[in-house]
Design brief:
This protein is α+β, with helices and mostly antiparallel strands and 94 residues long. It contains three helices and four strands.
Length: 94
Amino acid sequence: MGSPEAYFLAEWYCQDLADAPVRPTAARLDGAVADVSAGGTAIRLLGVIALPGDAMLFGVFIAASARVVAQVCERAGMSAQRITSAAGVHLRMC
């Protein structure tokens, strides 16, 4: 399996997704990541952030390309409205 190369932010603008509990949504994406990774494509989900007040949901990924992120989102049944590359990500869990 090739190593992931870049950070990506997937964005969804949907009140239903933003209002849903984050853990089951992350589990859907994790399942799709596992399926795609099993085929030899490198991708990791770093986290999911929901902003219900703004009807927004974000997924942070490490992957070889935006196309791979789109494939995972589609496999999870959650096609992203936008996928952008990020210069870097630093997540701190307290």
